[in-house]
Design a protein that fits this description.
Blueprint: E1 2-8, E2 12-19, E3 28-33, H1 35-49, E4 53-57, H2 64-74, E5 79-81, H3 83-86, H4 93-99, E6 101-103, H5 106-111, E7 116-120, H6 125-133, E8 144-149, H7 161-173, E9 183-185, H8 194-201, E10 209-213, H9 214-222, H10 226-229, E11 233-239, E12 243-250, E13 253-261, H11 267-278, H12 284-289, E14 294-297, E15 308-311, E16 335-336, H13 346-358, H14 360-370
Parallel strand pairs: 1-8, 4-5, 4-7, 5-6, 8-10, 11-15, 15-16
Antiparallel strand pairs: 1-2, 2-3, 9-10, 11-12, 12-13, 13-14
Helix pairs in contact: 1-2, 9-13, 13-14
């Protein structure tokens, strides 16, 4: 069985092509610029050239691309966009129109001239297929496409997108399905998760697709590290470029979590949050009022844990940090999880692991294949 797993972040998109007949360490891997950074670069080029923009395609990740588009508007240059592409910047299309974005139908976009055209997409199948083909690898032989993106969800007007996102996380956790609750077959993605749906529909129609949130995928991938896997009680954190999400785990069950904006954290504040989460004493209000998304503890305070595992491109925030997990116990250094020898592939391995959990037909070949890993 061949699985293409693509973890789309803010800084990079991490790509894994895994053949379950081979050792996981022999999977093909790429770490390349993220789609939002590629779009930002193209927008900046149009701004320098004084060219108006036409944005088509689907709803994709914002951040750098959205900031570049805002700069384009501030430079007095025009931005045209189809509705789906425009939602990359804001789900409120009226608000976008007020900022100067001109909304067009697909037919109107086709006939528009004198603009630089940019197609927005998180999962660019044609580009991936071409990149692998240049190396003699045929993506048409893929049996499953798995993609991870971060999705705030389409919050109703006047509802905080941070609160909407956290309510979604809490709802998924209360389903009792553990980290696998954040993964969906293409046809089962909630309607409110517009970016997840757009990424999934960008894959070929004739291939099965699994879509998942990025941070839970990275945490699930960290559990493929044997040091993390053997601990029944653990705290696992993914320190991403934009968001930090930590789970307090008891076996396969989620005992608590918090999510924050990485830019609002430093080593000391992150250490404090991890300590609070590890003992089940973390406040939703404190995290939310600090411009994070929130925190949640389920049931009684968690049992003591001796392990805090960390993954993610900003894991250096915890470099040299000591975390006190229990009274009377020596503080511990966070463990740097490296599933199958590569931290940058944690999200991709989480996607593979999630597929085994929610796609019955994929469970056996994936489980057997991962057992070959060192």
């Amino acid at each position: 069985m061949k699985i293409l797993a693509v973890d789309v972040g803010t800084g990079t998109q991490d790509i894994l092509l895994y053949d379950t007949r081979r050792e996981p360490e022999n999977a093909f891997k790429m770490v390349v610029p993220s789609p939002t950074r590629l779009i930002a670069r193209a927008v900046e080029g149009a701004t320098r050239a004084g060219e108006p923009l036409l944005l088509t395609g689907v709803t994709m990740g914002g951040g750098p691309s959205g900031w570049a588009i805002e700069e384009h508007l501030r430079a007095g240059l025009r931005v045209f966009a189809t509705p789906d592409a425009a939602r990359t910047m804001d789900d409120d299309l009226d608000a976008l129109a007020a900022k100067g974005v001109v909304l067009l139908s697909d037919d109107e976009a086709i006939s528009l001239s004198g603009v630089r055209r940019l197609r927005l997409v998180d999962l660019d199948w044609a580009a991936l297929r071409s990149a692998f083909a240049s190396l003699g690898v045929n993506l048409d032989e893929t049996d499953l496409v798995a993609v991870a993106v971060f999705d705030h969800g389409a919050a109703p007007p006047h509802v905080s997108d941070r609160r909407f996102r956290f309510d979604y996380l809490a709802e998924r956790i209360r389903s009792g399905l553990g980290l696998g609750s954040f993964a969906f077959a293409r046809e089962d993605i909630p309607a409110s998760m517009t970016r997840l749906r757009s990424a999934a529909t960008s894959a070929p129609d004739d291939l099965p697709v699994l879509a998942m949130d990025t941070a839970p995928a990275a945490v699930l991938g960290a559990l493929e590290d044997p040091v993390v896997r053997r601990e029944h009680e653990s705290t696992v954190v993914n320190v991403g470029n934009m968001h930090t999400l930590a789970f307090r785990l008891s076996g396969e069950s989620i005992a608590g979590l918090f999510e924050h904006h990485t830019g609002k954290l430093d080593g000391r504040s992150l250490r404090t949050l991890l300590q609070q989460l590890s003992v089940g004493r973390i406040s939703f209000e404190e995290v939310f009022d600090g411009h994070g998304h929130g925190a949640l503890v389920l049931g009684q305070a968690a049992k003591e844990t001796a392990l805090v595992a960390v993954t993610g491109p900003r894991r250096s925030l915890l470099a040299g940090v000591l975390i006190s997990l229990a009274t009377g116990r020596e503080p511990v250094h966070p463990y740097l999880a490296v599933p199958y020898g590569d931290m940058m592939m944690a999200g991709c391995w989480g996607l593979v692991s999630a597929a085994a959990r929610i796609l019955p037909w994929a469970a056996e070949p994936i489980t057997e294949g991962l057992r070959r890993g060192g």
